[in-house]
Hints:
Layout: E1 7-10, H1 25-36, E2 42-44, E3 49-56, E4 59-66, H2 73-83, E5 91-97, E6 105-109, H3 117-125, E7 133-138, H4 148-152, H5 158-181, H6 183-190
Organism: Alkalimonas mucilaginosa
Subunit structure: Monomer.
GO molecular function: peptidyl-tRNA hydrolase activity
Amino acid sequence: MSQPIQLIVGLGNPGPEYSQTRHNAGAWFVEQLARQAQTSLKHEPKFFGDIARIPLAGHDIKLLIPTTFMNLSGKAVQAVAQFYKIPTEHILVAHDEMALAPGVARFKLGGGHAGHNGLKDTTARLANDANFLRLRLGIGHPGDKHKVTGYVLGKAPASEQTLIEASIDEALRCLPILLKDGLVKAQSRLHSFQASTA
Length: 198
């Protein structure tokens, strides 16, 4: 892959009251990745987040979960990217995605933020460069825009949580493909996956 990933960010809100909410799906992905690598994220005040380093598919990768609130996520991403001189296109941001059903995950390069405050702030703080990779983890939509805040800051019912966790597992399996064989191959595997409760 001509643009190896150097930094994987998991978006979420800090604190125990938010840790199990849908908006933290991106953070769950990075937590799982750290567990899989048998490492733990450590708080780094200068990076406004919890950070770790792992070897993955022959690459040295930094993991980051911002400890700011979601709408200030970019502060942490910017701090790490500047310190380690990581170009925007070498960053993968994992986040919750209302446009996808629970159990569906997608890799995407660039694009808008669709009202997602974490993506909005990250793009703004990367000099308005949206050309980073995203891992979109489906959480579904409440069906009414007035219910969105309560929905993303609420816990998914157990059946939906199982689907979200299955899509995170599949995304973790696709990550080495992304690193070794590139975006198109990783997309073709991940995008054919649909978790089921059966």
